[in-house]
Amino acid sequence: MNYKVQQYEKFKFIEHGEGETLLLLHGLFGALSNFKDLIDHFSKNYQVVVPILPLFDLDIFHTTVGGLEKYVQKFIEARGYRDIHLLGNSLGGHVALVHILKHPEKIKSLILTGSSGLFENGMGDSYPKRGDKEYIRKKTELTFYDPKTATTELVDEVFEITNNRLKVIKIIALAKSAIRNNLGEELNQIKQPTLLIWGNNDTITPPFVAKEFNRLIPNSELQFIDKCGHAPMMEVPHEFNNLLEQFLIKLKHPAATIA
Questions:
Q1: What is the mean pLDDT of the chain?
Q2: Are 208 and 121 in contact (CB under 8 A)?
Q3: Parallel, antiparallel, or unpaired for β 21-25 and 47-51?
Q4: Residue 42 CB partners (closer than 8 Å, separation 6+)
Q5: Is 199 within 8 Å of 109 (Cβ atoms)?
Q6: What are phi and psi of 198, to 5 degrees?
Q7: CA distance 168 to 173
Q8: In sequence order, what are the residues at sequence separation of 6 or more whose Cβ sits closer than 8 angstroms to the Cβ of residue 235?
Q9: Which residue in 50, 65, 74, 159 has the most C-beta neighbors within 10 A?
């Protein structure tokens, strides 16, 4: 299903379905296609919202994790969302963490998958000569357990970004900002129920990162998916959606306590 990108004031986003708000934050090379199966599944029972983060539109001084968080905060305020289930992948998870630490009041739960914020292996601080598509293909394939998940369309999207000098500068700025912005000492302040869904074969934010998030975030649970890399919602959407659905149902209908 194709979803129409809406515009409200300066914000571009997808909004589909009705119910509690499930707000999705994409990563550094994220596209709306990353969340297609998730939107298809959850828009039956939730209002699924995907803001298009201005990765390449902020001035260089605000091309940071903090700059993206401010954008998300203004978006939430402008649209009047409340009781939000906030989900972030990769850099989007990092932005979600900064947001919940600064503005916890409207967030009902947090879902992280392959999130930065503690440790990450990026695509590197530099790129080869622009136009090296094979290099970009190999790097894109490293995101996944199964290299075939890196479709020609996805490689073309990443190639287009990395073939633009200004975009590359901003990618590097965001990657360095993510490395500097380590949240280890603040995570114990998160009170909301938190679900961590991680690929057991994630080489960018490896499994030990997920275990550390689980240790540091008080009310968190960790679910690993085998034969899965850095973007579970793309690579194994059925398993990802099942785990997320179980978590959200449990929040709605907590087990009755026995007197």
A1: 91
A2: no
A3: parallel
A4: 17, 22, 48, 241, 244, 245
A5: no
A6: -130, 140
A7: 9
A8: 144, 145, 146, 149, 199, 228, 229
A9: 50
Least confident piece of the model among 25-39, 108-122, 147-161: 25-39
Give the tens place of pLDDT for each residue, 91-118. Answer: 999 999 999 999 999 999 999 999 999 9
Between 57 and 126, where is the model more confident?
Answer: 57
Mean of the pLDDT values across residues 35-47? 95
Helix axes 152-162, 133-141, angle to 10 degrees: 120
User: Residue 47: its pLDDT value, please?
Assistant: 97
Question: What confidence tier does 139 reach under pLDDT thresholds 50, 70, 90?
Answer: confident
d(CA 68, CA 85): 18
Query: What's the rounded Cα separation, in Å, for the pair 136 and 194?
Result: 33
Sign of CA dihedral 216, 95, 149, 6: positive
Q: Two tokens at 207?
A: 């499994």
- Beta partners for 13? 6, 51
C-alpha distances (whole Å) from 161 to each of 22, 101, 152, 165 are 28, 30, 14, 9
Residue 22: closest CA among 55, 53, 51, 46: 46
pTM of the predicted model, to two decimals? 0.93
Q: What CATH class has 6-122+181-252?
A: alpha beta
